[in-house]
Write a structure and sequence with these properties.
Elements (H helix, E strand, L loop, with lengths): L4 H11 L6 H11 L2 H4 L4 H5 L6 H9 L3 H13 L2 E3 L20 E5 L9 E5 L6 H15 L4 E4 L5 H10 L5 E4 L10 H13 E5 L11 H12 L2 E4 L8 H10 L3 E4 L10 H8 L3 E2 L3 H8 L18 H10 L4 E2 H8 L3 H13 L3 E4 L3 E4 L3
Parallel strand pairs: 3-4, 3-7, 4-5, 5-6, 7-8, 8-9
Antiparallel strand pairs: 1-2, 2-6, 10-12, 11-12
Helix pairs in contact: 1-6, 7-8, 10-11
Length: 366
């Protein structure tokens, strides 16, 4: 168990009181001086604290240490750590949040929550193949340059973000909208184990709490508050990712968004964010530039594919900047489709380019 046992129990006990959320809980701690001092107070003392009415006083009087103690024992048996604001692993980004959690449950290494460069990467659950591919590629690139990736371990963009980060060097953090001991599918359990071994999986919900729709805005604020900036990769206008982005902006964090086609509709939410002032980014390098996270060019991989001829070099140069339909590639190269197709196939077999749905091509992962 991480941190000071008594303090963890006191913070957990506070979080369990019905009607007391993060803001009211912190008001109590501030008014009483320490979290331990809350329990040395009485009804007349609590009534003097702003925001503590008769109903909350009764809940405080009913509160005892046993429930928190039992939960801590269960967490120990389940391999779940509990951290609190008095803990050395408590994220520094939470200090500027008036609605930061009172406790966090964690699997993995809580020390990774203090990684200096953290980027939240969020987007649609039903993301396009192109969006998932770019997310994975960018997150692998960023993780290789010391950027920790934070996401919500959902399908689509979240899964691609964690997947790319797991192939890099920096930690990845998953924030759940359920407890860490909730019923998970075998696939979800594998994801939790993979992320925990490469960073940390956290939740503010009691371990056996199942995911519910109203949990996700609460989860999203943690994703935003934990990170230095939030990147929205692909999102429609009703996406929950926009909630995360707006919370990030409210916390004074940078918001970045990836533009896309106005025809498909997958990026309408990103376009709205850009209209509202989010930074437009078109590459992983753009992200480093916007955030001032420059890296030594010597850190770049030296094992790039070397084109066999000028035509291959031209194809690679074009695809490094955008994804193109084969018809657009023929125009760039001055070839017919029958002439270009075998060259693209050869590059695809080498992993240099990737063939996407709709006869489009992008740079591959090889």
């Amino acid at each position: 168990m991480t941190g000071h046992g008594g303090k963890i129990s006191d913070w957990l006990r506070l979080s369990l009181i019905r009607g007391i959320g993060p803001r009211t809980g912190r008001q109590l701690v501030t008014a009483c001086g320490t979290v331990e001092a809350i329990w040395n107070n009485n009804a007349s003392g609590w009534q003097q604290i702003e925001g503590i009415g008769p109903g909350l006083v009764k809940e405080l009087e009913r509160s005892g240490p046993d429930q928190a103690s039992n939960i801590l024992k269960q967490c120990t048996l389940s391999g779940i750590q509990v951290i609190c604001p008095d803990d050395g692993a408590w994220p520094e980004g939470f200090s500027t949040m008036d609605d930061a959690p009172l406790v966090l449950f964690a699997k993995g290494d809580p020390a990774t929550l203090k990684h200096p460069k953290m980027l939240a990467v969020v987007g649609a659950r039903k993301a396009s193949r192109e969006g998932r591919m770019l997310t994975r590629r960018w997150c692998r690139y960023l993780s290789g340059r010391g950027v920790g990736i934070v996401s919500g371990m959902a399908y689509g963009i979240d899964a691609a973000a964690h997947g790319g980060a797991l192939e890099g060097d920096a930690p990845t953090i998953a924030v759940l909208g359920s407890g860490l001991a909730a019923p998970f599918s075998s696939e979800q359990q594998r994801q939790i184990s993979a992320v925990a071994n490469h960073g940390c999986v956290i939740s503010e919900f009691l371990p056996e709490t199942e995911a519910r729709p109203e949990h996700f805005p609460r989860r999203n604020r943690i994703i935003a508050g934990l990170s230095c900036a939030t990147l929205v990769m692909e999102a429609d206008i009703k996406s929950g990712s926009l909630i995360t982005a707006r919370q990030a902006a409210n916390y004074g964090r940078e918001v970045l968004a990836v533009p896309g086609s106005i025809l498909a509709g997958h990026h309408a939410g990103c376009h709205q964010l850009i209209h509202d002032g989010a930074a437009l980014v078109e590459s992983a390098e753009d992200i480093l530039h916007v955030l001032g996270w420059y890296v030594d060019s010597r850190q770049k991989k030296a094992s790039h594919y070397k084109p066999a001829n000028a035509l291959e070099a031209k194809i690679i140069k074009v695809l490094e900047h955008e994804i193109l339909h084969i018809d657009a590639l023929t125009e760039h190269c001055g070839l017919t489709v029958p002439e270009l197709s075998p060259i693209l196939l050869a590059l695809e077999l080498l992993g240099v380019v990737e063939h996407l749905p709709g006869s489009r091509y992008a740079m591959g992962d090889g």
